[in-house]
Amino acid sequence: MNHWITLTADMLPEVIDQAELDAITAADTDGSVVDGIIQDVTASVREAIAANPANVMDLTRDTIPRTLRPEALDMIAWRLLKRFAVAVSESRDKAATSARERLEAVRAGTHRVIGPDGRMPVPPGKRPYVQGPRPAYGSGAPGLFPSPRRRR
């Protein structure tokens, strides 16, 4: 499973209904506006991820984490509808605002994203530190040893 994906125009029907999509594609005859907005949103998502040093970036320049796909698509839909003067509903405005807030959380470090390898990066200060007991009486053997009893 790919943990980071490339956004494409084929994903737009997930957030834009067919009538709106037909109006947008009819107005964008060469497809440059749709592709440009997809690239702009991809760049802004990657920029927010890179702003937090705890996150791990994918070396491919046009991929984003799969977990941020819904937010990216909401932002793309909002920009496309605004660009082609299609009515933007209140729920779409809320979705785009929520998507921008989540990107700000990613930028601020309150929301980390999955790495390209599928693992969640954990900063060194949050990793558990386990220290085993020191071997008793200098034996150097591994394992747990009882504490010496006190003599009365």
Explain how this protein is built.
The chain is an all-alpha fold and 152 residues long. 41% of the residues lie in helices and 3% in strands. The chain contains four helices and two strands, in the order E-H-H-E-H-H. Strands 1-2 form a two-stranded antiparallel sheet. Helix 2 (32-50) packs across helix 3, helix 2 runs parallel beside helix 4 (90-108) and helix 3 (69-83) packs across helix 4. The protein is elongated, with a radius of gyration of 25 Å. The N and C termini lie far apart (65 Å). The mean pLDDT is 82.
Structure described in brief:
This protein has 152 residues and is mainly alpha-helical.
Would you spell out the secondary-structure blueprint of this structure?
Layout: E1 4-5, H1 18-27, H2 32-50, E2 64-65, H3 69-83, H4 90-108
Antiparallel strand pairs: 1-2
Helix pairs in contact: 2-3, 2-4, 3-4
